[in-house]
From TrEMBL:
Taxonomic lineage of the native organism: Bacteria, Pseudomonadati, Bacteroidota, Sphingobacteriia, Sphingobacteriales
Segments forming domain AB hydrolase-1: 38-206
Protein name from the UniProt record: Pimeloyl-ACP methyl ester carboxylesterase
Residue stretches in coiled coil: none
Superkingdom: Bacteria
Species annotation: Pedobacter xixiisoli
Length: 212
């Protein structure tokens, strides 16, 4: 049975994967840990790698989890790297995010607003269905603001240019947070938003089964 480790999105957890079909695999969800003061992404990745107990696993990373998964491949052997609604390299980061990283404008974001369930957040993440809105609201409420600030800083300043030899990238055609036009070669999920693991779970599951 394939051993798979999964990293969820920024501040999220395994709840966002509740509709995906993992029944044929041995799956472990990696838990986010609290970053140390001014901790680098590299050091954080080394600490979180301690949760991986199997050799040569498959890694799946959603959104920010994909960035951390890509960093993990630099320190441990990985059979396959699968990104969902994420980024492969710095070149795929939208220009406005990169500019924010260079000027530190992202530090002016009122992070408390990002934790609230309102129309703009739902629109950005592509959350449409009533059940998904309820889950999204709970996930936002549980998100740690300090982790949120640290992770956003890591995203806008990410400098990766390396591609894993066995990398697969699944991305929605209507992702507003990370537009697909910036994402290079992808396995496209038609009309999928950033959180398409919820409302496009069947299509995402089918893509995963073809890859794995």
């Amino acid at each position: 049975m394939k051993k798979i480790y999964i990293l969820s999105g920024l501040g999220a957890d395994e709840r966002v994967f509740k509709y995906l079909d993992f029944k044929d695999w041995d799956v472990t969800f990696i838990n986010w840990i609290k970053p140390l003061t001014s901790e680098s992404l590299t050091n954080y990745t080394k600490r979180i790698s301690e949760q991986i107990k199997h050799e040569n696993p498959i890694l799946i990373g959603l959104s920010f989890g994909g960035i951390v998964a890509a960093e993990l491949t630099k320190i441990i052997p990985v059979q396959k790297l699968i990104l969902i609604s994420s980024l492969k390299t710095r070149q795929e980061i939208p220009l406005i995010y990169r500019l924010a990283g260079k000027t530190n404008l992202h530090r002016l974001i009122p992070y408390s607003i990002l934790k609230k369930d309102h129309f703009l957040n739902r629109w950005l993440f592509g959350v449409i269905r009533k059940n998904d809105k309820d889950l999204f609201q709970r996930v936002l409420a549980d998100t740690d603001i300090d982790f949120l600030k640290w992770a956003i800083n890591c995203i806008v300043k990410w400098s990766n240019s390396e591609l894993h030899a066995n990398l697969f990238h699944i991305h929605g055609t209507k992702d507003k947070l990370l537009p697909v036009r910036k994402s290079g070669e992808v396995i496209a999920i038609q009309d999928g938003g950033h959180l398409m693991v919820l409302d496009k779970a069947k299509q995402v599951s089918e893509a995963l089964h073809k890859i794995i």
